């Protein structure tokens, strides 16, 4: 259990650096307006339907590291690769509205946001 907690703590380091790297790749979308209601609902349903949910971008090295942390713990997260979806930017706007950040990765465990690129984690 201590090793697992240490591994999860390593996400803090990984995602802190992500705030400088994996920001929105699309400047055409603005998070200042209210996010699409369907996208907000998609995020909420995804988070509530999976033990571990990660909103990610496939090319982001910090996202890959976060996913690998769970793999090393023999946990299989549900991953939403925003850059591989036509509605990825809209979903990213919804994440911004929900968690206050537009960066990736954004990680949820048991329906609880544990952190993202800002490096702030709330342990359960």
From TrEMBL:
Domain called Glutaredoxin: residue spans: 52-114
Sequence intervals crossing the membrane: none
Keyword rRNA-binding found: no
Top-level division of the source organism's lineage: Eukaryota
Record has DNA repair as a keyword: no
Keywords: Disulfide bond, Electron transport, Redox-active center, Signal, Transport
One biological process term in Gene Ontology: cellular response to oxidative stress
GO molecular function, one term: glutathione disulfide oxidoreductase activity
Signal peptide: 1-18
PROSITE patterns per the UniProt record, alphabetical: GLUTAREDOXIN_1 (PS00195), GLUTAREDOXIN_2 (PS51354)
InterPro entries linked: GLR_AS (IPR011767), Glutaredoxin (IPR002109), Glutaredoxin_euk/vir (IPR011899), Glutaredoxin_subgr (IPR014025), Thioredoxin-like_sf (IPR036249)
CC per GO annotation: cytoplasm
Protein family membership: Belongs to the glutaredoxin family. CPYC subfamily.
PANTHER family named among the record's database cross-references: GLUTAREDOXIN 2
Purpose: Has a glutathione-disulfide oxidoreductase activity in the presence of NADPH and glutathione reductase. Reduces low molecular weight disulfides and proteins.
Listed name of the protein: Glutaredoxin domain-containing protein
Organism: Castanea mollissima
């Amino acid at each position: 259990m201590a090793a697992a907690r240490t591994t999860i703590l390593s996400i803090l380091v990984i995602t802190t650096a992500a705030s400088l790297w994996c920001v929105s790749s699309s400047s055409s979308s603005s998070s200042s307006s209210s996010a699409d209601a369907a996208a907000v609902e998609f995020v909420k349903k995804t988070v509530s339907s999976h033990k571990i949910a990660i909103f990610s971008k496939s090319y982001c090295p910090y996202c890959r590291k976060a996913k690998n942390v769970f793999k090393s713990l023999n946990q299989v997260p549900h991953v939403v690769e925003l850059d591989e979806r036509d509605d990825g930017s809209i979903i990213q706007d919804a994440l911004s509205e929900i968690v206050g950040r537009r960066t990736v990765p954004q990680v949820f465990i048991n329906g609880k946001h544990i952190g993202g690129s800002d490096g702030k984690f709330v342990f359960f």
